[in-house]
Amino acid sequence: MGFPHKSHPKETVVLSQYFGDADARTYKGWTKRGGYEALARALKTDPVAVTDIVKESGLRGRGGAGFPTGLKWSFMPKEKKRPHYLCVNADESEPGTFKDREIMRWTPHALLEGTAIAAHAIRAEVAYIYIRGEFTEPWTIMEQALAEANAAGVFGTIKVYLHRGAGAYICGEETALMNSIEGKRGNPRIKPPFPAAAGLFGLPTTINNVETLAAVPHILTRGAAWYRSLCLSNPKSTGTKLFSVCGHVQRPGNYEVTLGFPLKDLIYDMCGGPPTGRTLKACIPGGSSVPILTREETESCLLDYEGVVERGSMLGSGGVIVFDDSADMVYQIMRLAKFYAHESCAQCTQCREGTAWTTKILERILAGQGKPKDLDLLLDLSENMTGKTICVLSDSCAAPVVSGIKKFRAEFEAYLAGKRQPVMVG
Ligand code: SF4
Predict the structure, then answer these.
(1) CA–CA separation, 176 and 138 (whole Å)
(2) CA of 212 to the centre of ligand 1 (A)
C-alpha cells in the first residue's frame, strides 16, 4: 500500500491527511490536531441543528448507496419514546474496496468522533461499530482508541461498542448486520420495515458507513459551505471520496479526490496507468457489484454519483478494478460470479440457484464445453436474478454478467466457437 502515505498532488486530502502518521492514531495526537472539538460542540447543540449542517453539506453515504446522510438521520423518530441505535458498518468486504480499513488503521478517532456526533444527532444512546472479522490490525487499533476515548470521557452519555463479524460478505448488508449483532444468523431482512422504524432489536436504528462518519467531524469543524464547495461536476455530489484502485495499474492504492474527478486521470496520472506495453481494456468503477465499463466509457467518466451512472455503472463503494488488454473478461466475470455464489445466504431461490448456475455455465464456457444458447441462458438467468430478491446480492452477481456479455460478447463467442484455449477451473 506504499505507506507511509504520500499523497499525489492531484489528491484533495481530508480523510487521508493523517494516513501514515502514527501519532494521529492516539487520543493525544488526535486532540493535538483539533480532534474531538467538533464532538464537544455537537453535544451542546440541538440534534436537529447538527443534522441540518450535515444535510446542508450534501454528504452522501460512502458505503455504496449514496443516500444523503443528513436526510437519513432525519428519518429517525423525533419523539423519543423508545431507545434509538446507531450501527456503523465497518464490514468492508466488497471485492476491490479497501479504504474503510485504512481509516480505522490511521484515524480511528475520526471514526469514533463521527460516530458519537451521529449518535447524538439521531438521539441514540448506543452505537455499535461492526468490524469485519478479518480486520485484525484495525480491530486492535480501534480497541485501543475506544479505550482512550472512554477514559477521556469524550462521549458524554453515549455508549460506543465494537462488534466483531465472522467474515461473511452478506453481513455488510445493513439488515444482515443487525441480525448478526443480535446474535442471529446474518440473513438480510425483508424491507419494509426500514431500520429507522424497526431496526436493531426492533427499535429505530440508523446505519452509516465508516467513510461517511469519518467525514462528519471535518464538516462540523470547517462548515457545510466548505464541504459543498468540494465539487468538480454535479452539485448533488459534494466532498471528497477515497477510491481504492487495484488490478492492472502501476501504482495501486487508496487515492482521495474531490467528487467529479475524471476516472481517466485517476487511472493514468495517479496510478501510472496499465503496466508498460499494455493498454486499458475495461474497468469496474464501484466495487465488484456494479456494471463493467469499456475503455471508452472509463476514459470519459467523471467520478461522482451521477457521472458514473451516465456511463452505465455506479459509484458504489469506490473500489476501482482495472483490466488491461491481457485480461480474459470471461474468466474475470466467472470469478466474480463464483464469489457471489459462495457468499449467497441462500434464502432466495433466484439468488441461491442463480448465482450457482451462472458460475457453472461460465465455467463450462471457459472449459470449451459451452453450448450455443449459453449466452441467452445467462442473460435470462440474470434477468430473473435482478430486482426480485430480499437483498441486492443477486443483482450484484447479475450486473457484471449482463454488462460483460453486452460489451465483451466476442470473447464469450470465441470460447463457444472453440477459438480460445480452454481454461480449466473448478
Ligand atoms: Fe440471501 Fe441472496 Fe436473497 Fe440476499 S439475495 S437475501 S444474499 S439469498
Answers:
(1) 22
(2) 25
**Quick one: cell of 66?**
449514496
| Ligand 1 atom nearest to CA at 170 | 7
Q: In this predicted model, what pLDDT tens digit does every residue of 194-223 receive, in sequence order?
A: 999 999 999 999 999 999 999 999 999 999
How many angstroms is it from 104 CA to the middle of ligand 1?
Answer: 28
Residues flanking ligand 1, CB < 6 Å: 170, 188, 344-348, 351-352, 389-391, 393-394
Q: Provide the b/e sequence for 244-256 (b: ≥16 CB within 10 Å).
A: bbbbbbeebbbbb
Selected from 3.40.50.960, 1.20.1440.230, 1.10.10.60, 3.40.50.10240, the CATH number assigned to the domain covering 329-416 reads 1.20.1440.230
The protein residue whose alpha carbon is closest to atom 1 in ligand 1 is: 345
- How many Å lie between the centroid of ligand 1 and the Cα of residue 364? 24
Q: Give the pLDDT score at 167.
A: 87
Q: 260: which residues sit within 8 A by CB, 6+ positions away?
A: 231, 232, 233, 234, 237, 302, 303, 304, 307
What's the pTM value of the predicted model, to 2 decimals? Answer: 0.95
CATH 3.10.20.600 domain span(s) along the chain:
240-322
Q: Tell me the torsion sign for CA atoms 154, 162, 45, 213.
A: positive
Residue of minimum CA distance from atom 4 in ligand 1:
391
Point out the ligand 1 atom lying closest to the alpha carbon of residue 395.
Answer: 5
Distance from the alpha carbon of residue 35 to the mean position of ligand 1, in angstroms: 40
Confidence at residue 3, expressed as pLDDT on a 0 to 100 scale: 45
Q: Report the phi/psi class of residue 201: left, alpha or beta, with left for phi > 0 and alpha for psi in -120 to 50.
A: left
DSSP letter at 81 equals -
- Alpha-carbon span 332 to 336, nearest angstrom: 6
The best mutation among 175, 191, 339, 348 to test binding of ligand 1, ranked by most ligand atoms within 8 Å of the C-beta, falls on 348
Architecture of domain 22-229: 3-Layer(aba) Sandwich (3.40)
Give the distance (Å) from ligand 1 centre to CA of residue 345. 5
